[in-house]
Specification:
This protein is an alpha+beta fold. Helix content is 47%, strand content 28%. The protein contains 4 helices and 4 strands, in the order H-H-H-E-E-E-E-H. The protein has helices at residues 2-8, 10-19, 23-40, 83-90, and strands at 44-50, 53-59, 65-72, 78-81. A 4-stranded antiparallel β-sheet has the order 1-2-3-4. Strand 1 (44-50) and strand 2 form a beta hairpin.
Length: 92
């Protein structure tokens, strides 16, 4: 479900990234828009920030990761991560 939300807001993310005056403003604007959409769809999520990249994890009712999307904060581009690979790497 989280990848569908990102697909629907793809252009919005890129516009926010391009029209922000500072990197800090861009990060806050992207975070606000993403959070608003996740909450409105009642999606449980967690996130991990590394440098200019945010890993957004969709969680099921017991907290198990079911989907992961990576967002590049400098461009507003996102990609869906292979879940098996992500879980294998994240448990090291």
């Amino acid at each position: 479900m989280i990848s569908q939300i990102f697909a629907n807001m793809h252009m919005t993310l890129q516009k926010l990234a391009k029209h922000s005056k500072t990197p800090q403003e861009m990060v806050f604007r992207l975070a606000a828009e993403i959070t608003k959409r996740l909450i409105s769809h009642n999606i449980r999520y967690a996130f991990l920030i590394q440098y200019n990249t945010v890993y957004l994890e969709e969680l099921d009712k017991i907290g198990k990761v079911i989907e992961v999307v990576v967002l590049d904060l400098s461009t507003g581009e996102y990609s869906v991560v292979d879940l098996e690979e992500y879980l294998r790497i994240s448990w090291r």
